[in-house]
Amino acid sequence: MHEIVLRKTAVIIEDIFHEGGPAAATPLLRGAICAVIKNPFAGAYVEDILAFMDDLKPLGHTMAARLVEALGGDPSRIEGFGKGAIVGEAGELEHGALWHVPGGYAMRESLGDAKAIVASTKKVGGPGARLDVPITHINASYVRSHFDSFEIGIPDAPRAHEMLVALVMTTGPRIHARVGGLAAADIKGNDGLR
Amino acid sequence: MPAEIRKIITVVEETHIEGERGVTPPARRAAAVAVIRNPFAGRYEEDLSALIEIGESLGHVLAQRAVAALGIAGADVESFGKAAAVGADGELEHAAAILHPKLGAPFRKVLGKGAALIPSSKKRGGLGVALDIPLGHKDAAFVRSHFDGMEVRVADAPRAHEIVVALAISATGRPHPRIGGLQKTQIIGEDGLR
User: Fold this and answer.
1) Partner residue facing B12 (CB), from A5, A11, A151
2) Measured between CA atoms, how close is A48 to chain B, in angstroms?
3) Domain A6-186: which topology?
4) Which residues, 6+ apart, have CB-to-CB distance to B67 below 8 Å?
5) How do the domains of chain B map onto residue ranges?
6) pLDDT tens, residue by residue, A8-52
7) A131-176 tens-digit pLDDT
8) Could you name the CATH architecture of B5-186?
9) Can you state the angle between helices B49-70 and B104-111, rounded to 10 degrees?
């Protein structure tokens, strides 16, 4: 078991009123929570890293709960989600992949029974690296109006021996969504796709 | 003229570890950022009073947002700062009109006090440009432990005809301050300097 050594967190919330078109009756909220933690595997190749996924679960839960709270506190308002990781230069991309299970599981659990896969991305990067975290609908990945992304990053992270893990949530479609495709109102909701 | 706000972003940072040593309680700071339309983009306007009024309204709105994001009483805020980035078709003087004549009074009102000059910075830039918002103690500019800066950026702003306006506040000074100078316990708080 590896201890989670947390150096800092950042919560970023955007209230979007319009993007040149008519102002929406309800502004779109998009939010991210980032946590900067020590990468226990930095600096050497470690074959067996799987157990760290379990170690990360409590952090995932705390982050998901804080993000829901920062977006107004009502989990039923959350319609889109995504997750990502930036691994510091002494680490491996594979270390970022450890975030898939604890991040996705925590977010799904905090939102009731979200059915869709949590869209994700990851990279290795230096302090201040930016990551475009993909966003899709929480119950049906094909809902076109909810395809979105949110750029995250922290100026002083990740350092070489750290990794930055992030969760992203939104309260609705893109502010002026109008390119057709599967609508949220038409979700069947059985397979997480449509 | 009311500000035509496209989006508002809040960022909350919590630092738990700095220099391999725990920070107890964590150092916390927040920024509130508005992306607004620049009514004078692309032309020379002699009278900037519309932007001065916008600065006054944003001083109130953004200060409230930042304090709410930090989750503390306005009176418990220890340091403050402000900054603006003008899009490509605007003038630095447009940032000055927002920041300097009238923004400070409503900002200080939300914080209860604030005898010190509000440290500021401004620049012109493209989308995603980083703003380094200077921070200083709100009642005594010489408090050395509170000299700081917070970097914020908005991935999709400022567009050429927009201005990004940001306020930053902190509930604490730097983590582990140890370079001497005036201490916050020694503040007289009358002249804004000491």
Assistant:
1) A11
2) 26
3) 60s Ribosomal Protein L30; Chain: A; (3.30.1330)
4) B30, B73, B74, B77, B110, B111, B169
5) 5-186
6) 999 999 999 999 999 999 999 999 999 999 999 999 999 999 999
7) 999 999 999 999 999 999 999 999 999 999 999 999 999 999 999 9
8) 2-Layer Sandwich (3.30)
9) 20
